[in-house]
Amino acid sequence: MPVERVEGVQLGKTPEEVEEEVRRGVLLTSLDKAVGWARKQSMWPATFGLACCAIEMMSTGAGKYDLSRWGMELFRASPRQADLMIVAGRVSQKMAPVLRRIYDQMPEPKWVISMGVCASAGGMFTNYAIVQGVDTIVPVDVYVPGCPPKPEMLMHGILTLQQKVRTEGTFK
Amino acid sequence: MSVAIELPELADRIRARCPDTLVARGEVTAIVDRDALLDTLAWLRDELDLGFLSSVTATDRPDGDPRYWVVYEMRSIEGYHRARVKVGLTDADARLPSVTPMFPTANWHERETFDFYGIVFEGHPDLTRILLPDDWEGHPLRKTEALGGVNTRYHGAFIPPVDTRTTT
Amino acid sequence: MQDIPTDQLPRDASGEIRQETMIINMGPQHPSTHGVLRLLLELDGETVVTCKPIIGYLHTGIEKNTEYRTWAQGITYVTRADYLSPFFNELGYCLAVERLLGIESPPRAQVLRVMFNELNRISSHLVWLATGGLELGAVSIMLYGFREREVVLDIFEAVTGLRMNHNYIRIGGVIMDVNEEGEQKIRAFLDEMPKRIDDYETILNENPIWRERNMGVGKLSAADALALGVTGPMLRAAGVAADLRKDAPYCGYETYDFDVPVREEADAYARYVIRLAEMRESMKIVAQCLARLEEPGPVMVEDPKVAWPAKLKVMDDGIGNDPEYLRHIMEESMESLIHHFKLVTQGIEVPEGEVYQAVESPRGELGFYVVSDGGHRPYRVKIRDPSFVNLQATPKMVEGYLIADAIAAIASLDPVMGGVDR
């Protein structure tokens, strides 16, 4: 018999429907985990190095602090092929539209790490020229403070992001 | 092949041409009028081998008269000696002949000075903003402009001043 | 898709096949332009017809910000302008302020300043080599360059506490003396580095690809360079032996024994050779500095109105305090406490005047025009950055050549956009 369905409230399900939902739930949770694991394993960063933090990002990708251990050493120049944007450095007012454009050109799913205090909050440059925090332009997932952050700090930020991605749950 | 000119002799020779010359902290500064600027720079290049223009910049003294001081740093490559030339400009008439035809290096320096202070260089091949966005309003390095964080007038964005951002 | 037969191609009035140039944009986000540089290129096939560099994407307002902070805080701003050579920025600013104050830093501080400047020159040239190699396709050079740079950054971290943007050179001297660990690391570095530079030369000097891409590329004659205000390795590659360390010595450079490499060909390959030779010369200077550091001495001027109040050094717990001094101001002397308080919050007072101080940074003449009106804050700090002026030479070097040569030419220019835009 037809049951009134109100948004978000389960009223009177048939046992078959309940079973179907449980099965679907279990399958989706496993699928979530698998997809989350796959996504975090193979993130490709987009080159968005701006200032001093960019040099530390390059150092993180170089031999001593190796980003290759997580498969991330290949910085994609084209945003169409990237899924992580590490905003490394101070974002000036002139660069802000470019930043937004690159972010829009990245396909879903995408994440943003804001590296350094200048990208996170404007840093020491509390003036007319610097955007006071890149989260006024793009949604940020992880903030890494420091001026510039040591490569180990950036790696901690990346691992935090990977944890977030792994447990994000895409199919709920 | 020229030889370095020592500071006292350099100061005397420049003072003979530009009476308003002072020597302080090991440097010679000649203050000239706007109309005499190009001739003075040409004379410095030809007679004293000061043919390398290091930098062009300006200082803003809003309470002073003249308000803007445009500063040219000259240097000799062969025999090392330096001199500075300053021109004073009032607020109402902040225009100056451009030295880019004589010294091509001044091109970007003058664009930056225009960008920061609003001083117009007549005869410049391309006097547009160089460091700030093209549609920025105002000239930020003037002392009368705030440090920022008040209506940064770019695309209508508003970021509050630093001292109002915290609640404590 | 079929080919259009030649007799059907559009023709202009005189009967020639019509050709148009293409205007494309390179940057500001691009892996091969050194940072956020935007080039507006008009291309005829692969040849560059006109090139217009557009800058300002990293404009930070450093000069305006220094007017709102104390003299000592100015060092932290200025050091981030040209972020690959922070010691040079600090040195130029501090020398300018010291000239305004009329003081000179003690000899040991000068030796330390020279030593760290030369180490910074090496690390800056290593980044140039790494990124230049990466842009031309020599990816292993990037890894080698950054590997050596890590050794230098370890030295910086052991002595100053930071890998970049150190805030180490202060008005009146340097903030702390070099410690045992730092000296050992420098010695180890000096032992190992000559072999590494030999390695780079073995890989690159006779490499046909490197030679093809760099020889004859990005030519800039001496007359053009002088007219455009270009200094540094670009000018020395054109045959003009201009180096501020020899022409107008500061910090005792006249007492050190080193050469200034000069070449005649004025192309990208000559600049490469010069920068490698400069790295070797810098190591010579660092060795001489180490020898002079055997004699102890103060590293900050004695004047209590100028010197940073505490003598900092890294203690066993890793924190850089001075317990003697803390005990003195907290328990013994009220005046010292007041003086300390005023000096740290208000800052020093610098007499009125203006000064232009130039140092030889890895990219050329780095000048500081500092104006004071007698107060606790700078009135005007203008940074004459070498990359800003050198970048004006880009159209001259690039127009009329292939676009791939444009990349090599700009790489040989070694611009750092933080300095260009400030």
How does this model look, in words?
- The complex is a heterotrimer of chains A (172), B (168) and C (422).
- With 172 residues, chain A is α/β, with parallel strands linked by helices.
- Helix content of chain A is 40%, strand content 9%.
- Chain A folds into two domains: 30 residues; 122 residues, Rossmann fold, CATH 3.40.50.
- Chain B has 168 residues and is an alpha/beta fold.
- In chain B, 21% of the residues lie in helices and 24% in strands.
- A five-stranded mixed beta sheet of chain B has the order 1-2-5-4-3. A two-stranded parallel sheet of chain B has the order 6-7.
- The radius of gyration of chain B is 19 Å and the shape is globular.
- Chain C has two domains: 316 residues, Cytochrome-c3 Hydrogenase, chain B, CATH 1.10.645; 41 residues, no CATH class.
- In chain C, the strands form three sheets. Chain C has a three-stranded antiparallel beta sheet.
- The radius of gyration of chain C is 24 Å and the shape is elongated.
- At the A-C interface, helix 2 of A face helix 1, helix 4, helix 5 and helix 17 of C.
Task: Please tell me the overall pLDDT of chain A.
Answer: 81
Name of the CATH architecture of the largest domain in chain A: 3-Layer(aba) Sandwich
Global structural class of chain C: mainly alpha
CATH class of the largest domain in chain C: Mainly Alpha
Strand content of chain A: 5-15%
Rg of chain A: 20 Å
Q: Major sheet of chain C, described briefly? A: 3 strands, antiparallel
In terms of per-residue confidence, which ranges of chain C show pLDDT below 50 for 5 or more consecutive residues? Answer: none
Number of helical segments with 4 or more residues of chain C = 17
Sketch the topology of chain A as an H/E string, one letter per element.
Answer: HEHEHEHEH
How many domain regions of chain C?
A: 2
Shape of chain A: elongated
CATH topology of the largest domain in chain C: Cytochrome-c3 Hydrogenase, chain B
The named CATH superfamily of the largest domain in chain C: Cytochrome-c3 Hydrogenase, chain B
The CATH topology name of the largest domain in chain A reads Rossmann fold
Q: What is the strand arrangement across the widest sheet of chain A?
A: 1-2-3-4
- Tell me the series of helices and strands of chain C, N- to C-terminal: EEEHHHHHEEHHHHHHHHEEEHHHH
Largest β-sheet summary of chain A: 4 strands, parallel
Mean pLDDT of chain C: 87
Number of strands of chain A: 4
Strand content of chain C: 5-15%
